[in-house]
Write a structure and sequence with these properties.
homotetramer; alpha/beta; seven-stranded mixed sheet; four-stranded parallel sheet; 11 helices; 11 strands; Phosphofructokinase_CS (chains A, B, C, D); ATP-dependent 6-phosphofructokinase (chains A, B, C, D); metal-binding (chains A, B, C, D); kinase (chains A, B, C, D); ATP-binding (chains A, B, C, D)
Chain lengths: ~325, ~325, ~325, ~325
Amino acid sequence: MKRIGILTSGGDAPGMNAAIRAVTRTALANNIEVFGIHYGFAGLVAGDIFQMTSETVADKINRGGTFLYSARFPEFAQEETQLKGIEQLKKHGIDALVVIGGDGSYHGALRLTEHGYNAIGLPGSIDNDIPYTDYTIGFDTACNTAMDAIDKIRDTATSHQRVFIVNVMGRGCGDIALHVGVATGADAIVIPEEKYDIKAIAETLKQGFANGKKHGLVVLAEGVTDAETFRKELLEYGDFDARANVLGHMQRGGSPTVRDRVLASKMGAYAVELLLEGKGGLAVGIQNNKLEAHDMLDLFDAKHQGDYSLYSLNKDFAK
Amino acid sequence: MKRIGILTSGGDAPGMNAAIRAVTRTALANNIEVFGIHYGFAGLVAGDIFQMTSETVADKINRGGTFLYSARFPEFAQEETQLKGIEQLKKHGIDALVVIGGDGSYHGALRLTEHGYNAIGLPGSIDNDIPYTDYTIGFDTACNTAMDAIDKIRDTATSHQRVFIVNVMGRGCGDIALHVGVATGADAIVIPEEKYDIKAIAETLKQGFANGKKHGLVVLAEGVTDAETFRKELLEYGDFDARANVLGHMQRGGSPTVRDRVLASKMGAYAVELLLEGKGGLAVGIQNNKLEAHDMLDLFDAKHQGDYSLYSLNKDFAK
Amino acid sequence: MKRIGILTSGGDAPGMNAAIRAVTRTALANNIEVFGIHYGFAGLVAGDIFQMTSETVADKINRGGTFLYSARFPEFAQEETQLKGIEQLKKHGIDALVVIGGDGSYHGALRLTEHGYNAIGLPGSIDNDIPYTDYTIGFDTACNTAMDAIDKIRDTATSHQRVFIVNVMGRGCGDIALHVGVATGADAIVIPEEKYDIKAIAETLKQGFANGKKHGLVVLAEGVTDAETFRKELLEYGDFDARANVLGHMQRGGSPTVRDRVLASKMGAYAVELLLEGKGGLAVGIQNNKLEAHDMLDLFDAKHQGDYSLYSLNKDFAK
Amino acid sequence: MKRIGILTSGGDAPGMNAAIRAVTRTALANNIEVFGIHYGFAGLVAGDIFQMTSETVADKINRGGTFLYSARFPEFAQEETQLKGIEQLKKHGIDALVVIGGDGSYHGALRLTEHGYNAIGLPGSIDNDIPYTDYTIGFDTACNTAMDAIDKIRDTATSHQRVFIVNVMGRGCGDIALHVGVATGADAIVIPEEKYDIKAIAETLKQGFANGKKHGLVVLAEGVTDAETFRKELLEYGDFDARANVLGHMQRGGSPTVRDRVLASKMGAYAVELLLEGKGGLAVGIQNNKLEAHDMLDLFDAKHQGDYSLYSLNKDFAK
């Protein structure tokens, strides 16, 4: 193996740059050349490919976003488009690939592996919704961004005896809401994975106020519904001074935390290790604190398992 | 003068606690007792009043929100309710008052002064919309909170070549949008004080992309319209990948910045100075870096003047 | 069991308040009364004990430090002093105890257990040096605090082509230096657990500059030596423009991160669970993502195992 | 005037990039070409000069440090070296210059002006020690960085009843210590501009503890002495548990605050305005909230005036 390509695909996540750096430095340390591909699979097909040196990835570890940019490129599902991508790999002498993104990116990665270009997938996504990994690159940072915002909202809630319903990201996964809800002492956490009882939530809030609580907080995963809809629903069960907040896209940016930089660094190095062992079509994950690699095919049928003990834990705390 | 009361009214703002502390410590240093009033004018009327010591305000300077809580209490506009408030002042032996809040709070403060209870107003509001002061307590912190959020949004915008329309607070005032727009290098700033040309904004964005710019950013004051409405309007002038974000209530919270803590401290001490001079019905402000006190009556007819040179400055930068 | 006591002992750590809250809310949810003990074992002996309600722990989860305060109290090693502490437990009707602190606190906890007062230990320390737990409460926050500071130092190093030697905390443990060193892309990490070769470090720095690197960074665990001593040593191997920085006590404070709040919450609830099962003399830890409880006696002979793979990983990155 | 050069000199300061951007965008908007000079006057002499476009300064406004790098180059005081610098200006067709740095940079700027190359100076320094300007670019950010660090230190001080002596930067100027001392509620602020009475400081600390204060804080400007020396001195007047902390170089880095970005933007545009008016040898400042330009010569005899009312204000608060 002489040359590795790297691309980032799908929604971006803090820590992607740290992962790109880790792949690059590890490959170079093993005398393998490294080529960066801009704009994910779209850039691969367009041939937006350039050589990277140790210098290229300097001063990147603390930067949010991805300096290789990213794109969603559903067209890559078509064989024709994949073949164009492979032509570009051939043209640039690239033997193997590291794909950093959500598990949607793994389909394209697997296709390339099947065509003889080993690809390893690294879980880059703030949503933490990738199977066979306890944490994705970007999840810890997104959680802390959301938590900081809610801590600020709580300053104001305390002053006004309000109920704040705060939408956090996660697409169909409730992990951000779960961890952030526990971290902010939410009165209620609402996630797709657990049926919610709005009447009970209303009761918890009323009980809290009766017990002298000065504010109410509901952390709501976007995968369930939007904050304004939930707010209206809640008002049917009580005369609350309730406000909806949608934290939005800031959750995808920002300088990565220590956890995300370290995780990205370990995973990036491990990806190169796997390629050096001649492996491909594997998705890297961290499970029970150990790095693992699973067949990408297995991921497509599986579902990420979050730590749902946090859900009942928070209910006990809110009493 | 033997006893000063302090209350915070209206929307809360970071730095209010620092102001309360400054009033308290300065009063105590002058052998004047200090009483805190919870929940603004509502708490005054309800008699929710307690004595404060130096200890009460310890470890408060870095806390967001207001530990005296706050409330909007439009009922205080009625003479009857004001008289009840005055009874409470009498009952607790309070001679004078410091009112920290938006200029809406100044009406109540002026009524009390007219009844013989000198009141000094301190401009506590994130909106920076109070006349005769370049800056309000809380404005600097709110701007930095918004800026940090937008810096994070820009990480993701850069990755996706998107246009982000971000709503910031300010009620009818464009100052937050103005300062934050300049600080985040926005392609366009939209504020109530200046007519906006959406076609020109669309052109600026298109021109920027044509020149290689990787993202577009519009900072939109909530006083003009909401982000989603603006987004739809913008789409009539170009095929943009545009997203709306509303930063929301986090802008009212958080630990105050140095500027807000120092400003609050200076203003709090100054308020006590004015009361010691037997003055009342005055609103404290900072103009051209000097502390000033204006008759509250003058404020009611006046309008805050922002630094609109920033508006044209940012237009030049966005070319 | 009717009444649980809680105390925090030793150096404080962000997340301690979240742990206190978790113990309190879980106990109350199980109809167990909760008493807080100020100033660790010193306060226990002095009888500085008070009842806590759900309200007492409200709005604490995001606060750094410990609202129960802390103290180092070596006198508690003496039987006499322990007996005084036990008298206080008796006097206040406390049946069991949760001790949050470094493993030094566990000795006292074990003594109380032996006297019939079950005590569970929670690992509260920024140093991450407690055996049988991958992470202590406070470690993640301290690492992020150090990383943020070094990110800022790097801004200036880049401008001046300097080498910064930065002391981070950890007492005798290198974990903070290890994780922070990887997260900041340090040219060298120096920890007590690994012999360091200063000549090789000097070569790495020179090689980096020759390859166009604009700055050099050495992350140095305080357990090895202080930054100024190391700096002088380094200058014997090259004509570096080197500056020493000691990050200091800020690493012990600050609002806890999501990880620390969630970990503290899980551990706090688990401690109460163990006490409800009639257990005592156990130290809670998290290993491979699972909560565990070990006999405190086992900890006294053991040594914390860090993730030393990060050490060689970072060396590869620095080439 | 067809071509402007920009350089940053001396110690770096957050906001320098925003200033470079403002100069560049304003010049380009006036059809003037812009050339960046790396490494201050050293780079000028070496001819390390390159053309800049609007793109060059994109995504820079939020970056700490200076992307033009910086250097201290005392050799530029010599006529010979200045002439070499002028040759480079000629060679690159540069007509005028914007110099961003401390007032030490202004000497070189004045020499160039005298030789026919108009130069305008912008005050870039965290120390706030430049005459004829209330604020320098970088001061607000440095203050907030120091304040955040001290807020974290206070979390731990509260737990341990300690006295922390914290060194902040400023070289010979006490402004950072002054503003940060007020913002952190320090028991004492020690600056070069005011004689300090260590016995009185010791008394203030003891009195505070006697009144129930849980911690003590002294904010010490580096221009007076170092924290360890002061700590030892303090121990002669009381049996304090005192710790020294030196915040160090982190104060020079970090993403600039809103104030610094806005100030830098206004000053950068103003510098180009002055050059367009054919002016040179002027130092830009902001006084009483208005932009001003002073003859550089006047600065060399003058001394920056800080807001020393804050000094006595904080003394009153600490009683």
